[in-house]
Each structure stands twice: as structure tokens, then as C-alpha cells.
TrEMBL record:
The lineage of its organism: Bacteria, Pseudomonadati, Planctomycetota, Planctomycetia, Pirellulales. It is found in: Cytoplasm. S-adenosyl-L-methionine binds at G76, G126, E127, R141. Keywords: Cytoplasm, Methyltransferase, rRNA processing, S-adenosyl-L-methionine, Transferase. This is Ribosomal RNA small subunit methyltransferase G. It comes from the Bacteria. GO terms for cellular component: cytosol. Belongs to the methyltransferase superfamily. RNA methyltransferase RsmG family. It comes from Rhodopirellula maiorica SM1. Specifically methylates the N7 position of a guanine in 16S rRNA. It holds the Pfam family GidB.
Length: 221
């Protein structure tokens, strides 16, 4: 397999330099996922430019924030973003995917198998998995507001060290809502990455880290 010239051009246009072996795996992921997208509603990002500028950009920002050996859950994986690109970009971390819609979880399982990645897929609500499993980081994009995540994870902080949420410009409003509802009581929230989204100059993506205050969250204080 060789690199699709349109994928290479999109990487170039967005100034992303990726090792060719990794780029080929990312290409295989996008192509396999797009095949499944013809039957299931997995993504609207069906061009190389959208894949690179919307999906890969977020994953490339998230990848360096994880430490070697981490056990990471992608909650609400849908089409596999960010979990699958993350597993490709960072083979030194253990990624699992949670997707509550059975048909999508099944497609994710097939995509993972085709790519030969060591990534378990759970057809379950991510927060329910935390009854039985422990993860150092729960990562997520486009699944719920900050307040909703705080509510989901609230009973399970013994099973999670931190949440890493990929958000767009509305994150400030969401933080306001979460504060208003008291959802952030006993939690810390820090923006640990900010990057241009490219659609217009003012539009920024962020990665928010949320973790428990006090001794339980000592490693991130
Ligand atoms: C809008 S899609 C986002 C998919 C992907 N993360 C992305 O950024 O493109 C949200 C997905 O999360 C799933 N979902 C929503 N709540 C969930 C939960 N509590 N646990 C697991 N999956 C969930 C939905 O079924 C849907 O597939």
C-alpha cells in the first residue's frame, strides 16, 4: 500500500509531518471506517481534508499529553476518534473504546480487527465500565457537555485519574454551566492544550483536563 496522494496533500496543506509507516496505518483506518460509514452513520468527515483538519488535528494534540504505559478509555468512540488514531500514534499506551450503540461498537470491532490493533471495544456506556475497570485517563470528543461528564464520572473517580476532553470554542460556556450547577465542586479543571481549528482565525480547539481536588488528584495538582 502506498500513501494516497490526496492524504499526503492534506497533511502537507495542514503542515502535519507524520512518519510514513504511521501515516499508512492512519490511511487504512480512515478507508476502513469510511467503508463502514456507507452502512452506518459514523462520520460526516469523508474527505482527506476533513479527516486531517478535524479528526487527525485533535488526535495529534491529544497524543503527546498521555504518558507511556497509560490505560486509556475513549468514551463515546463512535467512528473511533480519538481512540483509534491514538492507538496508532501511541503504541506505548493501552487504548480501549466504549460505544453505547451496539451497531457502532460492532463496526468499531471489525475496523480494529482489520487494522490488527490491540484495542478492546466495549459495547457499553463508558461510565458503566468504570464499575469493573480502571483507567488512568478517560478521553472523549463530541459526546457530552462538561457538566454531563462530571455527572457521569462523579461516582467513579476511584477508577479514573483524569478526564481529557477535546472541545471547541463553546467550552467556556460549558464550564460556566458546570460551575453554575456545582458539577465542578471538588474537581480541578485546566486547559492543557489550545490550537487553531483552521476554519477561521478566532476558532480554537482545546483539551481540558479534569481531575479530583485533594490527595486523590495529587499527581496533577
Ligand atoms: C457524536 S458521536 C462522537 C464520536 C467521536 N467521539 C467523534 O468525536 O467523532 C458520540 C458517540 O458517543 C456515543 N455515546 C454517547 N454517550 C455515551 C456513553 N455514555 N458511553 C459510550 N458511548 C456513548 C454515541 O452513541 C455516539 O456514537
Amino acid at each position: 500500500m502506498s500513501l494516497d496522494p490526496e492524504f499526503a496533500a492534506a497533511l502537507d496543506a495542514h503542515s502535519m509531518e507524520i512518519d510514513e509507516v504511521i501515516a499508512l496505518k492512519l490511511q487504512a483506518y480512515a478507508e476502513t471506517m469510511w467503508r463502514w460509514n456507507e452502512q452506518l452513520n459514523l462520520t460526516r468527515h469523508t474527505t482527506w481534508d476533513l479527516f486531517v483538519s478535524r479528526d487527525l488535528r485533535d488526535c495529534l494534540q491529544l497524543a503527546p499529553l498521555l504518558e507511556a504505559g497509560e490505560e486509556v478509555l475513549d468514551l463515546g468512540s463512535g467512528n473511533g476518534v480519538p481512540g483509534i488514531p491514538l492507538a496508532i500514534l501511541r503504541p506505548d499506551i493501552e487504548v480501549s473504546l466504549a460505544e453505547s450503540v451496539a451497531k457502532r461498537a460492532n463496526a468499531l470491532g471489525e475496523i480494529i480487527e482489520e487494522l490488527g490493533l490491540p484495542v478492546p471495544v466495549y459495547a457499553a456506556r463508558g461510565e458503566d465500565l468504570l464499575e469493573d475497570f480502571r483507567f488512568s485517563s478517560v478521553v472523549s470528543r463530541a459526546v457530552g457537555s462538561i457538566a454531563k461528564f462530571c455527572r457521569w464520572i462523579e461516582p467513579h473517580w476511584a477508577s479514573v485519574d483524569r478526564l481529557l476532553l477535546i472541545k471547541g470554542p463553546k467550552w467556556v460556556e460549558e464550564r460556566g454551566e458546570a460551575r453554575h450547577l456545582g458539577s465542578l465542586a471538588n474537581l480541578q479543571l485546566r486547559r492543557i492544550a489550545t490550537y487553531p481549528l483552521g476554519d477561521d482565525e478566532a476558532s480554537e480547539g482545546v483539551i481540558l483536563q479534569i481531575w479530583p481536588s485533594g490527595p486523590r488528584g495529587a499527581r496533577y495538582n
